[in-house]
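Troubleshooting: if your tokenizer reports a length mismatch, compare against these two reference records.
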Amino acid sequence: MTGTANGENVVHGQAVIQDPTGLHARPAVKLTKLAKGFSAAIEVRAGELDKWVNAKSPNAVMKMKVRHGETLHFRATGEDASQAIGELVGLTERDFTD
């Protein structure tokens, strides 16, 4: 899904956390490591009402304390935003396995 903010395309995606222990340290680091590989500005939040955090910050992502069954929402802006969202959603859907 795409939208526009400040003249830039915003790409959105979402995926449900499958791990019974939620988004703990190891998957959070995998998520942030993948996000850092893109030039796009990428943010993530758990649920519809939570605050957006920088997906490239391991500390911020771990502090979200996302539980099993919760939905991670992603948004990105920049030239590789679509690819970033696709890969982050895919990683989450694969339960953070390579």
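Reference record two:
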Amino acid sequence: METFYRLIWLFFCYSFLGWLLETAIAAVRERKYVDRSLLFGPVCVVYGVAGVIISVALRDLVGNWVFLILGSAIYATVAEWLAGHWLYQMTGTRWWDYSGRKGNLDGYICLTASLQWGVLGAVAVKWLIPMLGWVGNAVPSMVAHILLWVLLGIFALDCLATALTLAGTLHRMPRVEELSTRLGAVSVRLGTWVLKKTESRIQKAHPKADFQKKQEKSTVFAAGCGFYKLFWLFLIGAFLGDIVETLFCRATAGVWMSRSSVVWGPFSIVWGLAMALASLLLHRYRDRSDSFLFLAGTFLGGAYEYLCSVFTELVFGVVFWDYSHIPFNLAGRVNLLYCFFWGIAAVVWVRWCYPRLSGLIERIPKRWGRPLTWALAVFFVLDMAVSTLALARSETRSQGLPPQNAVEEYLDEHYGDERLNKIYPAAVRTKQE
């Protein structure tokens, strides 16, 4: 929980500092105040998300300026790319545009901006995080926790109002004023007022924003590259990734070894997410050269694997892979050879795998494709939840602590050390501070 509170604290700090930076830059350029936040509050979520990822992922690289800047640039650039495309899809307008700069991609990212994010991220990891930690520690724990929960509640309501506005909810409510008057409900009136204020504020900052977009209904299941398509690509990638890694271990080490990430089924979550993210980020560039896809896959794949390694160690206290014995490795989390493998995989995936798998997925009948997708999604959520609880209980069990409730007794009975060692034979427990 203390790690959770620290991350939330960093998120709000980075979001607020990002809002200050964006507002100041806009004020200098336009010589007037311009609200640069998508939300009501003085926060820029992209800065918060990217800042937290950089702070967590790159904490071991404080003394390595080259990889600190490179890693910060990659994570921040991906966050900016995703945010730019999502905002355009939701509002039909660009919230920033780098089209006039050299080395830009879709006008949402460019080399100069990426370099700036790299330097800012490195400075944040090197000096800003210790400063923010000192400020956070100066506040009594109880007061800090209450304050963070209050901020989270306000932030959640702010996000909900903004999401409903971007989805065009207000325009799909016929005779809103008449409805709220007839019902006489304070909640309806307040909700309508919030939606109107949110839309007005966004359109004032971005006059071209459109909340009345008509979405074309497709008769094809999982058309495009939306949620349904990405989920099935995740499912296929998770299964194939587990099979490929198992065969690879057999071929190189001469043993059959489980490479699953979860306790139910042969699924590698790392590979599944990689395939889904690769499709989301790279499928639109399928007409670009193989060298472009290879370089993109090399850098993105390496950064992704590094982040997964840090995340699993931070959350579970377990290292699932260690490349310290392989030349040109970085903290044992990634190595140059496997980064090249990611690059090759990106080319093969975009050129050959994605088009064929996409076509097969779209052939699933729509009438049962969606309910099946949600059923499988629920299964995966439960699978990952049980896996997380089993690993957490394994940690407390290694400390000699007896089960405290029925859930822990069930985990000890069904997911004891012997079974977990079979599922995660390569996992090595680390010492948590």
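Descriptive notes for reference record two:
- The chain is about 70% helix and 5% strand.
- The longest helix spans residues 366-398.
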